Amino acid sequence: MEEMAPFTTRSWESFYVIVGSSAGALTGLQFVVLTLIAEGGAIRGTSATLSAFASPNVVHFCTALLVSAILSAPWHGMGPPGVAVALTGAGGLAYAIAVLRRTVRQRDYKPVLEDWVWHAALPILAYAALSYAGLRLAEAYESGQYIIGGATLLLVFIGIHNAWDTVIYVMQERTRRRETPAARTVATAPPATPAITPAVPANVDPPGPPPAPGS
What we know:
There is one protein chain. The chain has helices spanning 13-39, 47-53, 55-72, 79-105, 113-138, 143-188. By secondary structure, it is an all-alpha fold. It has a domain at 58-166. The longest helix is centred in the last third of the chain and has 46 residues, at 143-188. The protein is elongated, with a radius of gyration of 33 Å. The chain starts with 12 loop residues before the first helix and ends in a 27-residue tail after the last helix.
């Protein structure tokens, strides 16, 4: 039978300081990157596409920051923080399912296997783990702390991967859009007219000198 252990914030304090501060910094960086991309005119797609591939990254980072803040607060007992984490995981799970539906409905981009794994499967797994671990923590089981820590760190990694994937995709699209007009210009340019040199007969003698005056 699993041993019940008292909840202490000090044993996990350094972990959640690192995870929470990283999530907060990456959230701000995400806003900066999206703003620069939008100003460069490189973002295409409908609101459904952006809601499926851009907004979830901010939600993942904010969830990691929220969980870190919850478990860093000076609670008296394991019940309140466990319930708070479970509710956070349940809300994130509902949001991840909604993102999956948006991904299926949008038509601007066709996801590949890697997209389904990182944008759908792993977020659902992380939020489901948070919900389960929060209930375990509320029941004073020590394993809940490790599951919550792993799920929170997974959300940070998901956000980092998806944000980087978005930047790479936008850079490739921008390069393709720049190369396409240049290729069209070369294809539609009129062919150069070759220079025509008049032919000189080979057997014609050159004209003689003009006759002298009075001859």
